[in-house]
Design goal:
Layout lengths: L1 H12 L15 E7 L6 H14 L4 E5 L6 H6 L7 H7 L8 E2 L5 E3 L13 H11 L8 E5 L6 H9 L2 E6 L3 H17 L5 E8 L2 H19 L4 E7 L3 H8 L3 H4 L4 H15 L7 H10 L2
Helix pairs in contact: 1-6, 2-11, 6-12, 7-8
The chain binds adenosine-5'-triphosphate (ATP) and magnesium ion (MG).
Adenosine-5'-triphosphate (ATP) binds next to helix 2, strand 7 and helix 9.
Keywords: ATP-binding, Nucleotide-binding
Organism: Planococcus notacanthi
Protein name: MinD/ParA family protein
């Protein structure tokens, strides 16, 4: 794992610098949702954040890259016909594996029991990501629902994305693991754009305090500034929506947690867009070519 991280560090050093002269906005941006500890609410956040962006007239695709686990489709109560696994197996085009969920939400399933994306030979990997590249300009956002923790796969997705939303709960175990993610990422590429979301807060004050302490620690000890998108209350409506296999935003649109996520999406859309390469840059970085 450490050897692989060192390899990634070397490769990131050789990447092209960002070109600040070009305009941002017309391209497909890639947004990774991640966490240190598992089970903090990434998949629910990714799904409802995507639906919030759609409410604001954005075209969004969720790509479930927590490979081997079928998070998003279960939350949507959908059975995808095709997945990344079958795409590779049957040599399909990316258009063939895109499913349509509620409100025009697009999604790609990783496929149950499939976790070999980065173990594939270079040719197959390149073919897969080039195929993904055909989506450039067709959607505004691709949201990656990653697995938890610092696996090699997760790191590759985090390092390649335009923006990374890092979820934690106020629990110290979750906060410490989120800090480890920042430390690892910062050691490889200090230019990664990280934004914090504190989920499952019992009060606004608790959420704010968690975010403030986290930001202070990363600035002081890692020299990394992290913006905060805010906090989401702990809300019984979230597990209720999961049990109904309906997204929270549709099942309980006026719940406290849905309102918080909607506000975050508005805040996110107001943020200045630093120039990033979007989907093309993502693919270049993932393939390190
Ligand atoms: N704001 C919230 N309030 C209450 N419960 C929540 C909230 N957000 C998430 N949960 C609950 O936390 C659990 C984990 O959520 P989710 O599956 O989205 O996490 P995850 O980070 O994607 O997990 P994994 O790491 O296993 O992929 C679910 O049971 C969900 O109902
Ligand atoms: Mg998940």
């Amino acid at each position: 794992m450490l050897d692989q991280a060192n390899g990634l560090r070397e490769k990131m050093k050789n990447q092209q610098p960002e070109n600040p002269g070009r305009k941002a906005g017309k391209k497909t941006r890639v947004l990774a949702v991640t966490s240190g500890k598992g089970g903090v609410g990434k998949s629910n956040f990714a799904l409802n954040f995507a639906l919030s962006l759609i409410e604001q007239n954005k075209k969004v695709l969720i790509f479930d890259v927590d490979l081997g686990f079928a998070n998003i489709e279960v939350l949507l109560g959908l059975m995808p016909r095709e997945t990344i696994a079958t795409m590779i197996e049957k040599d399909l085009a990316v258009q063939d594996i895109i499913e349509e969920g509620p409100n025009g939400l697009l999604f790609i399933s990783g496929g149950n029991g499939f976790n070999e994306l980065f173990q594939m030979n270079d040719l197959k990997l390149e073919k897969f990501f080039k195929e993904l590249g055909t989506l450039h300009g067709k959607v505004d956002y691709i949201i990656l629902d990653t697995g938890a923790g610092l696996s090699y796969e997760n790191l590759r997705f985090i390092l390649a994305a335009d923006d990374v939303i890092l979820l934690t709960t106020p629990e110290p175990t979750s906060v410490t693991d989120a800090y480890s993610v920042v430390k690892m990422v910062q050691g490889i590429d200090p230019n990664v754009h990280l934004k914090l979301v504190v989920n499952q807060c019992i009060s606004e004050k608790e959420g704010q305090q968690t975010a403030d302490n986290f930001k202070q620690a990363t600035e002081q000890f890692l020299g990394k500034e992290i913006g905060s998108l805010g906090c989401i209350p702990s809300d019984a409506r979230v597990p209720e929506a999961v049990k109904r296999q309906q997204p929270l935003l549709l099942a309980y649109p006026n719940s406290e947690s849905a309102t918080a996520i909607r506000q975050m999406a508005s805040g996110f859309l107001q943020l200045p867009l630093p120039y990033k390469l979007g989907l093309k840059g993502f693919i270049m970085k993932i393939l390190f070519k």
